[in-house]
Write a structure and sequence with these properties.
mainly alpha
Length: 114
Amino acid sequence: MLRYAAPLILLFVSNIFMTYAWYGHLKYVGAKPLIVAILISWGVAFFEYCFQVPANRIGHTVYSLSQLKIMQEVITMTIFAGFSFFVMREKLSLNYLWASFCMVGAVFFIFRGN
């Protein structure tokens, strides 16, 4: 059971770091020179990879590559929506709902048997 859950948990943590590395600098270091934002983002991305690489290594023993990728995308959209709303204070529109429905469809097609 842990082999199935561990990749999900690790990808979730990885995506928190990834989202912050990609977008956090817009809020927290926007006034600093670009090189500072790049270096901070690289530093944060290191921690993303510390979780992402084991997630994919463990996950590939029980999931296909396509299944791992779609799980990562769904997790990314979930983390991004929360980050947009709670950290960046952006409004969530109905487009997030429609995108979520599309992601559910993608999950269905990737996980259904061939």
